[in-house]
């Protein structure tokens, strides 16, 4: 039986996120469990604590289930109202897309936040893939130079043996 089965759901979330805030990726040292509303004082007191948050909020008909939950630090909690301009053609296109896919997106807000989230997350993944590739390349170069020096040592040894006999 794996250790994971002995962890409570919040600890499982914590492990799944690599003990980091789902938003800013700052390390989390604990989980806020006492319930109640947290607001105002985001200083010292809640530093490093992860708060359970619904990725898609209830207001947008998100469900309170594990697959829709993540841990956020106090600084990333809550929502911010954004008033930003976008070209009319883009808005109209987004509106039409929303109207065609009412099952997938409950509101324009839901569509816009999903689009933004997807864009940012795929950029993150791209960066991580690039970093993994760089690490592999370095490992390969190290191995190649080790093989080269090992083969040089062997050649040297062989020459010595030839001299010896
Ligand atoms: Zn955060």
Number of helices: 3
User: How confident overall, as mean pLDDT?
Assistant: 85
Oligomer: single chain
How far the N terminus sits from the C terminus, by CA atoms, comes to: 61 Å
How many distinct beta strands? 3
The value of Rg in angstroms is 26 Å
Strand order of the largest sheet: 1-2-3
**Residue runs with pLDDT of under 50 for 5 or more positions:** none
Major β-sheet, in short?
Answer: 3 strands, mixed
Beta-strand percentage? Answer: 5-15%
Bound molecules: zinc ion
- String of helices and strands: HEEEHH
Helix content: 40-55%
Helix-strand category: mainly alpha
Shape descriptor reads elongated
Overall domain count: 2
Descriptive overview:
With 165 residues, the protein is mainly α. The chain folds into two domains: 1-79, no CATH class; 82-165. It is 47% helix and 7% strand. It contains three helices and three strands. It has helices spanning 9-16, 88-100, 108-164; strands at 30-31, 49-54, 69-72. Strands 1-2-3 form a three-stranded mixed β-sheet, with helices on one face. The longest helix has 57 residues, at 108-164. The relative contact order is 0.08. The model has no long low-confidence stretch (mean pLDDT 85). It binds zinc ion. Residues 21, 23-24, 26, 72-73, 75-76 line the site of zinc ion (ZN).
